[in-house]
Amino acid sequence: MSDNHEFSSCDPGEWKKRKKVNYLMVSPQDIVAQGKCLCLQYIRFRLKRSGALNRKVIQRLRTITIDTPSTSTVIRDVFPILNGLGEELERMHPRVYSNVGRQLSRAWADLPEAETLSVLLAEVAKELFRGGASWARVISFCAVIGGVALDCVRLGRADALPRLVEVFGHVVEEDLMVWLEAKGGWKGLLAVRAAGAECTLMGWLSIGVAFLSAIYLASCILDSVRRLIF
């Protein structure tokens, strides 16, 4: 029996189900790559909002290459929502998402080595998503990365920016993949925004508490790492 015949014999409800399944089928590789692209764009816009996007930084950002065949559509559709909600979150919790590096380490003037920075942010993510993932928490972690990026640039360490994008990709792969697959990938944010779900005022306020807990944990980890190194 031909595929055409198989589809022609389906009732409309069955056809809609198949269409929905096809929509939800996004490869893990695409989810990671798209996440890294969204993170890169969020960093760019966070630096621009803060007046820190100079020529040197732009050149460094351009060296970050992410190869995926289906990125441009996701960036066009999803990023404006991600960026808008992230900016709203930064306004609601200015103390949380400003000077993030100093919250992670009292000695932030000595920017941790790339590997240590990766461990810190990965642990912040694990604490943030310990109670489960949600779009509000995902956007919160984007804001964390954006805040750290700004701190790095202010310290003259734009060379750390590629590492931040890689860390975000690692977190997507290790901590968020199953949840994102269930949501149909990053485009699932479109449906959430349209429905107005998960983005209530109380939901955003709860993020501040969760993030402060994550910052405290990461600070303790950094202190332990420093004792081991020094």
UniProtKB/TrEMBL annotation:
UniProt key word Transferase: no
CDD domains: Bcl-2_like
Transcription is among the record's keywords: no
Top-level taxon of origin: Eukaryota
Assigned keywords, A-Z: Apoptosis
Domain Bcl-2 Bcl-2 homology region 1-3: 82-186
Pfam family, one: Bcl-2
SMART domains, A to Z: BCL (SM00337)
Stored SUPFAM superfamilies: Bcl-2 inhibitors of programmed cell death
GO biological process assignments: extrinsic apoptotic signaling pathway in absence of ligand; intrinsic apoptotic signaling pathway in response to DNA damage; regulation of apoptotic process; release of cytochrome c from mitochondria
GO molecular function, one term: BH domain binding
Record-linked InterPro entries: Bcl-2-like_sf, Bcl-2_BH1-3, Bcl-2_fam, Bcl2-like
Family membership: Belongs to the Bcl-2 family.
The protein's name: Bcl-2 Bcl-2 homology region 1-3 domain-containing protein
Gene source species: Phlebotomus papatasi (Sandfly)
